[in-house]
Design goal:
Elements lengths: L6 E6 L2 H10 L4 E4 L2 E6 L2 E7 H8 L13 E5 L3 H14 L2 E8 L5 E6 L5 E6 L4 E2 L5 E2 L6
Parallel strand pairs: 1-4, 5-8
Antiparallel strand pairs: 2-3, 3-4, 6-7, 7-8, 9-10
């Protein structure tokens, strides 16, 4: 298996509501057969009905009543950008779960959940470089 991800699919209760939320953050999607696709750098983020996603994966849907052990993250170029994105997310209907603050690694980060409870971290990490296109370049950790 190659070390890459092609798609991240978020199971959502209401595809239209979820699309409106992400579009209020400036994302632009394309809808095909009740599924919304957003180009996100070299990968895609997909919004699909939660029940359909569970059925497709042969899973029992246990609902959205708790933390699922996964967080999506977007690293940005500055602390100001963290604050701007968090304000836009809250205005679009996100629930801020951790306001922006200094981090143990010398950065600045905050967390929110989208209307379906998907966890997002928005972070400025001066140790992680971003290419011109926004893609993350991990440092050499000296392993």
């Amino acid at each position: 298996m190659e070390q890459r991800i092609s798609l991240i699919t978020l199971g959502v209760a209401d595809v239209g509501r979820a699309r409106r939320f992400y579009e209020q953050l400036g994302w632009r999607g394309q809808e095909v057969e009740e599924t919304v696709f957003f180009q996100a750098g070299g990968m895609a983020v997909v919004l699909w009905g939660r029940g359909k996603l569970a059925d497709d994966g042969g899973l029992d849907d246990r609902g959205t009543d708790g933390f699922g052990g996964v967080a999506l993250a977007q690293n940005v170029r500055s602390r100001d950008e963290v604050d701007q994105i968090m304000a836009a997310a809250e205005q679009a209907g996100a629930r801020v779960t951790k306001p922006a603050a200094e981090t143990f690694y010398g950065g600045y980060a905050a967390y929110f959940t989208d209307p379906d409870g998907h966890v997002w971290e928005i972070a400025h990490n001066p140790g992680f470089k971003l290419a011109e296109d926004g893609s993350l370049v991990l440092p050499d950790f000296g392993a």
